[in-house]
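Q&A log
Question type: sequence-to-structure
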Amino acid sequence: MTVEVSWFSALCDDDYRWLGVADPALRSSWPHCRDIVTAAERNGFDNILLPSGYALGIDSVAFAGGMAALLERLHLLVAVRCGELVVPQLARQLATLDQMLGGRLTVNIISSDLPGESLPSEPRYRRTIEVMGALRALLDGQPVEIDGEFLELSVEPPRVRTVSGTCPPLYFGGMSEPARDTAAAGADVYLMWPDVLPAVRDLMDDLRTRAERVGRTLRFGYRAHVIVRETESEARAAAAELVSRLDDAEGRRIRERSLDSGSAGVARQAELRDDADDDGFVEDHLWTGVGRARSGCGAAIVGDPDQVLAKLRAYEQAGIEAFILSGYPHREECDLFGRYVLPRLDHAPLKPRI
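Response status: OK
Response body:
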């Protein structure tokens, strides 16, 4: 099976040499995040996630516009937070980006609270379904007439269209019951954070069933960190070094500053840390130490090139079709993964949607 292999650009102030120790050179900025993206293209990755956080780092949509002219092959997976932009304007921005990229745009829908808002989970996901439906219709070139719980729109699609004339693939993740139903109803790719393999299989089975109930199918993506070195002992030493200067109180502050810090997915990452052994491993080569200073994706695949490759292939065999990987510092680990593992994965450059 050919898989999609993506990297991650740390737009949300999430880059460290030692977790929890701020480094001005690794802070989210145009030159730093640009260099991560160009490294990902140079190393042969297929796509790259541009995350979004209101209070953290730089804006994903504006950053994508700047990057579009600098790239030749790489797709951009641009994260957008539901409700922060008026949907017709967001549709126009995304269509413009897709034109600038020659059909290489993908979109990560984030169901988050708005800045200054605290909306319970169920209505927040109902809003997300309305936004996804309206956005998909507009990007498909269809007029939208909706008198919904959150959206009231009577609007024609924007004149500017994507290169293909259709909506780019929508990636979406979430562990709660409302989140799973939202993914089944509106996503193209369901993204999951690290977990043990039995739980990964169970989650995919559950999402397939939910999608089938509404006449849809889903692809599945897996978001994880990686630490790969020439030997397993070197990889484990790098993992230990990454958290060697972490103050627990600072790690807790970093986790809690995220808008999604109370989500079901974050709670599951905490459970994995609780279940891990004394070295932080919850399963062979799955290390939970990253989650000590990170709200979201909280585990890393750790090992030598053969071990990391075998772990990724195990996820492939379970049904994963897309990987979104990262490591610390992001540019350096991008080069290491690109050297040791990426050439051995069965992946092919994503084709522009034309």
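Response note: Residues 121-139 form the longest helix (19 residues).
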